[in-house]
Amino acid sequence: MSLDLKFTYTEKKDTRSGFGDGFLEAGRKNPNIVGLCADLIGSLKMGAFQKEFPDRFFQTGIAEANMIGLAAGMTIGGKIPFAGTFANFATGRVYDQIRQSVAYSDKNVKICASHAGLTLGEDGATHQILEDLGMMKMLPHMTVINPCDYNQTKAATLAIAEHEGPVYLRFGRPSWPIFTPADQKFEIGKAWKMIDGKDVTIFATGHLVWEAVVAEAMLREEGIHAEVINIHTIKPLDEEAIMESVKKTGCAVSAEEHQINGGLGDSIAQTLSRHNPAPLEYVGVNDSFGESGTPTQLLEKYGLNAENIVKAAKKALARK
Amino acid sequence: MEKQSIEQLQKICTQLRRDVLRMVHAVQSGHPGAPLGCAEFFVSLYFDILRHDPNFNMDGKDEDLFFLSNGHLSAGWYSVLARSGYFPVEELKTFRKINSRLQGHPATEEGLPGIRVASGSLGQGLSVALGAAQAKKLNGDDKLVYILLGDGELQEGQVWEAAMYAAHYGVDNLIATIDYNGQQIDGPTEKVMDLKNLKAKWEAFGWEVNEIKDGNNLEAVLEGLKKAKSLSGKGKPVMNLLYTEMGYGVDFMVGTHKWHGSPPSDEQLADALGQLEETLGDY
Description:
heterodimer; A: 320 residues; alpha/beta; Rossmann fold; 7-stranded mixed beta sheet; 5-stranded mixed beta sheet; 13 helices; B: 283 residues; 5-stranded parallel beta sheet; two-stranded antiparallel ribbon; 7 strands; 11% strand; Transketolase subunit TktAc (chain A); Transketo_C/PFOR_II (chain A); Transketolase-like_Pyr-bd (chain A); PDH/Transketolase (chain A); thiamine pyrophosphate (chain A)
């Protein structure tokens, strides 16, 4: 039995490639864009930019703290640095450097974080950061973006190049369905209502937007009409879109590849509780570390796939 | 800025020391010891060495830039910035007070002219200065980037990441200086965490090391900084080892870590000011 999906795909690709391709295109448009990477150029897909603009690219070696400081310094004189490494090393390892030299100093640095979340897979919990969105969204001045597929990541990369101010851009490693259009307009801070519904709203970010699209079709087979909203920008959060949808549906589910503590769901709960309290169920990692495994196995074991979104939606509905 | 005589510069040094002591005393908090020891450095830099414009702009294109990595020397830096025209000298009285642009540690958030990045959490400034120096190279800007670090600060690992990077990329438009006073909050550096042979360490990292043996002698500092400038542009980053005495200029403060982060009492302030001539007028 096949599902009647509202969004489909013919190709899969990693979101990090969307970043790499967007970075190259942004670099061609704007000569002030420079790149930095801490010994993960291949993994971050920054090699094409490095090859085309060797003078504007800086291999920093395995020294992320220095990389963040360098990026902050390069903005003085008008450069727009894109500093790339794994999400774990781009946040937790260098939190104070980001806090003081980038966020507090309000520098135009783009922190580009790959291999975020459980879907990093076999490398295990040391590398599977699930706390990065929380850490980054707590920083004043910081914009936090977590796109859902190759096309959206590419569009987001181009958009942050034109945005003035510090940005955290989070993407990942696994090959993932490309289900959003190549020519999409990416508006920072503007949620995208992908599927109209009336019974429950699913707010999803990153890879889990695809799981939400699948969950919507599964719910529809049971006569439940879910609204799916793609929250690519965690901060600033599109509170208006959230309130408008929940006003209609009366309950919601948040879905993210991140700890429940401090994640997107927390931000949505804050919005709801301030303006119009409504039942909210969380799909996310429940206060635990990850482990080695394939992305699919991990999303299943930690309760982050479409089946879990369906369960959460029904739970939210029952609480209305 | 018109060059001033040694006598004039000396007068600015005593005024800077007075400013620092009065600022820290007024709010009964802050760090007097290290800025007293760096008065000659600050004054040499801002009144002679730097090619800079007190009409501040963040990008600082075609200007020499200065970064303060050991941000707790803020009182000294604010004094020299005010005295060289970045903002009104009067504003020094707001130091560390609510609604001030003169934060406890330097910050950009309130828009204080002269500050290009926040500092205070140690170990980060050298990386930022290197980035700014590389941006200058990318922009075809031949001016220099200066930075001051504390010696205790060298215990932070990030400094050595930056040290390695600077030599690897031959960032030779950067002139760093270590305030080598041998003191930190908990005591002498050799007791807290011995730095051992700093000259050998920086040379081993691929830097050109320039020792300024008497960092509280104005002429020696000026000469040392001019030499450092002559060493720039030759493929290596330049490091000045500036031997200073913490608390210099006040007999009961000199040479001890005890005044790292303690303000003087009313009596101690009077005693200290009695040793430092008011030359440019107190704020």
